Amino acid sequence: KQEVTQIPAALSVPEGENLVLNCSFTDSAIYNLQWFRQDPGKGLTSLLLIQSSQREQTSGRLNASLDKSSGRSTLYIAASQPGDSATYLCAAVSGSEKLVFGKGMKLTVNP
Amino acid sequence: KAGVTQTPRYLIKTRGQQVTLSCSPISGHRSVSWYQQTPGQGLQFLFEYFSETQRNKGNFPGRFSGRQFSNSRSEMNVSTLELGDSALYLCASQGQGSTGELFFGEGSRLTVL
Question: Cβ contact (<8 Å) for B104 and A93?
Fold first, then answer.
């Protein structure tokens, strides 16, 4: 059974810092891993999708990497801004083709 | 291109009642999946529909059911509501087979009193 973990559960940083958000999963036989952002009371916004054959994906200030052998993915946010404050979730699709989510990491970027 | 649309956005019900939530996926997407989000359990998979057939089902009681229509719109129903069913119900639309990117709606916030 796939389990996805995100540690820490919350992070508060000053504006301008480069950040690394961690995501670990127990079943390395994943099809893909997706990072989302959720603002309070809102739905999820897709940030990056990494297929199992890929090592990383980039979009603007965001870069996500995938290491299946170690069961880890990281989301790198460059030059953080107050507008980046949100909850970030990672989710893995594996053998059962169900999307399994981590509990999320609440990020606060202080001006 | 319109995104995923969920209705209603907010609703309040009492214990024992039933509720039906609706989801219209992105045009051309044939896969719709449903998730329940609560503060304690996080996001949990309910079920997935593809071309009107349920393709996957999560570990929820039979009170939770769904269906998909020929135009890919989907509905989920919860019968005999319990207080613990209070949650944000999210619908996701997927276009590219089972490994494509998921796009979520804004969700339906259900409160059971």
Answer: no
User: What pLDDT, in 10s, does the model give residues B75-92?
Assistant: 999 999 999 999 999 999
Which chain B positions have a beta carbon within 8 Å of A105's beta carbon? none
- Please give the backbone phi and psi of residue B14, each rounded to the nearest 5 degrees, phi first: -110, 160
For tokens 């209705």, name the residue: B7
Q: Residue A102: which of A65, A59, A67, A71 has the closest Cα?
A: A71
CB B10, CB B88: distance < 8 Å: no
Contacts A–B by Cβ distance under 8 A: 54
The closest of B3, B17, B15 to B90, measured between CA atoms, is B3
Mutation target for A interface from B24, B43, B94: give the one with most A CBs within 10 A.
Answer: B43
